Amino acid sequence: MNGSLTSLPWWGYLGGAIGMLCLTLNIFLFPILGSVQTVIIPMVGQIIMSMIIDNFGLLYAQHSPLTLTKVFGIILIIAGIIITIALPQILAKKRSSISKNNKSKKFIWQIIALLDGFAFATESTINGHVGTVLKSPISSAFLTFLLASVILIIINLIQGNFKNLKYIHSTHMPAWNFLGGIIGSINIFTNALLVPQIGIGLATILGLLGQIIISLVIDHWGLLGSEINKVNKLQISGIFTIILGIVTIELI
Do the beta carbons of residue 145 and residue 185 sit within 8 Å? Predict the structure, then answer.
């Protein structure tokens, strides 16, 4: 590592733990909130938190004051996310009656999902600062994955989960199922590289836009074993709304 680990603030070592917590939370959120809310609510949380970090220059991030123009751009982006992801499913399904008890439980998990998004943005900012201090985004990604791996190994040792590894060998899965870790490391490296250069706000928004576009591509052609769901005009208009929001924030 080019820089010194001793130069890191204490919170510089939290990136791995926060990232592990966020990914684990997503696993719990999916069966409770469903795919749409599990995607949208953390995305909104990431955008809100990234703008707060930018506005106050938290965690040594670039200071970028929040203006009315930026607020309008953020509203456009959030509207675009809802149009692209939520509206097609809302229009396709009839609203089902939900008991007050279930609504109350869901509300708690929706708050947790929002906090999950806050944590994702915080992790990216931390990793960006670590990359700056160590003068290497690769070193930042390595430190994040190392700490997360140590935590997960300890948890699985305590729970005795390693005895189940034999089932992985006997299960016939396509090779690309094991690429998640590699893709995750590229994502962390990219954030560590971009956040100090363009700020957490823009890095987060562009990253979310990329996620939405690639998910639509996968759905449209049924890639990676997913069902084919053709992209419609509503979703395309949502993408353009997000892009308009980004342009509003950055250029106007």
Answer: yes
Contact 94, 103 (CB under 8 A): no
**What pLDDT, on the 0 to 100 scale, is given for residue 90?**
77
Computed on alpha carbons and rounded to an integer, the radius of gyration of the chain in Å comes to 19
pTM score, two decimals? Answer: 0.85
Residue carrying the six token digits 């769901």: 229
72: Cβ–Cβ under 8 A, 6 or more apart, which residues?
A: 248
55, 18 Cβ separation under 8 angstroms: no
Question: How many CB atoms are located within 10 Å of the residue 249 CB?
Answer: 22
Between the alpha carbon of residue 70 and those of residues 118, 241, 252, the distances in Å are 18, 14, 9
| 19-33: pLDDT as tens digits | 999 988 988 898 888
Residue-by-residue DSSP string for the chain: --S-GGGS-GGGG-HHHHHHHHHHHHHHHHHHHHHHHHHHHHHHHHHHHHHHHHHHTGGGPPP----HHHHHHHHHHHHHHIIIIIHHHHHHSPPPP--HHHHHHHHHHHHHHHHHHHHHHHHHHHHHHHHHHHT-HHHHHHHHHHHHHHHHHHHHHHHTGGGGGHHHHHS---GGGG-HHHHHHHHHHHHHHHHHHH-HHHHHHHHHHHHHHHHHHHHHHTGGGPPP----HHHHHHHHHHHHHHHHHHH-
Q: Where are the domains of the chain?
A: 10-251
The whole-angstrom separation of Cα 130 and Cα 5 is: 9
The amino acid at 237: S
Other Cβ atoms closer than 10 A to 129: 23
